[in-house]
What does this fold into?
Amino acid sequence: MEKNVFQKIIDKEIPATIEYEDDRVIAIRDIAPSAPVHVLIIPKKYITSAHGITVDDADLIGHVYLVAQQLATTLGIDQSGYRVVTNVNADGGQTVFHLHFHLLGGEPLGRMNAARVASGKHGGRGILREAGLIVLFAIGLAAFYNAMSPKHLEWIKPTYTAVPVNDDAIDKLIATAPTPTPTPTPPAATTTTAATTPDRPQRTVDSPKTSTATPPPPAEQAGAARSLTLAQFKKLMGKPNVVLIDARLQEKYDQGHIGNAMNIYGSEVEQHIPELLAIPQDKIVIIYCDGGHCELSHRVADVFLRFGYPNVFVFLGGWAEWSAQK
Ligand code: AMP
It folds into this structure.
């Protein structure tokens, strides 16, 4: 059976920002935080969900809550307040089937599920009206702020921008690319761990930045994907150190794709993080989708950038430009 993502983190096969660890639990920062503080406390013992807890686990679960308390203090949310929750199965919103507890805080979290309770059997119309008013007020406030802001956002979809790269930078990258290793291994999680005791959470930080590749030239914007023209893309295509990713839906990929591109659908990229992190950091990663300012490519690029990959490019012309020139 394939290990779940949390088991891989426990086994240090993929990196994570570790806030606390002992022999029974590990606590990591959530990769897609829902609040300013969002830590996952994960028992090392494999239990599918809170519904799989037995009386033998009573001590372990008690320990989880003590760790939550200590983390809340360490992270400075013990006085302002916080929430500890665990999701069970589909209706509970569980996506990773290895028991974990979300520790959330750092801002007012609001009442638990007011809107849902109101719409179900237990609530009254008053609560529903109140939730509706809050939503309308928030939308109005956001619209007002957006309209007033000089850097206002596009409606509905975020606008991604990629920074163009000059030809010299591409040539330099090709010239200095390290010789490919025949058997790539996932980036090792180098953990600097201070002595940990169950009583005192210690902050340990995994560093996924194990790259020996040439960093991007200083003129280019750090943390943003760089865009490739067709000519630049062709220069890099076929180089042994290049990994090509097609971010479109599988049906489109199956109808035709560029070279040996792997298919990671941009809208579901969070589900493929272990797969992406298995790509060594010294690779030149190029992502494309249909063409134009395709959001799917940027979503995939964002994951690599978040994990410190230095050479991440989006081929903006994508499949449309590539297939048209043949
Ligand atoms: P749940 O939906 O309750 O199963 O929660 C799963 C949580 O795990 C979500 O909040 C995800 O954002 C988070 N998550 C998934 N993969 C990772 C990862 N590689 N590192 C940190 N958090 C993750």
Remarks:
- Residues 5-105 form a domain with the HIT family, subunit A fold (CATH 3.30.428.10).
- The chain has two domains: 5-105, 162-185+216-325.
- The CA atoms of residues 120 and 128 lie 10 Å apart.
- Residues 114-124, 180-222 have pLDDT under 50 and may be disordered.
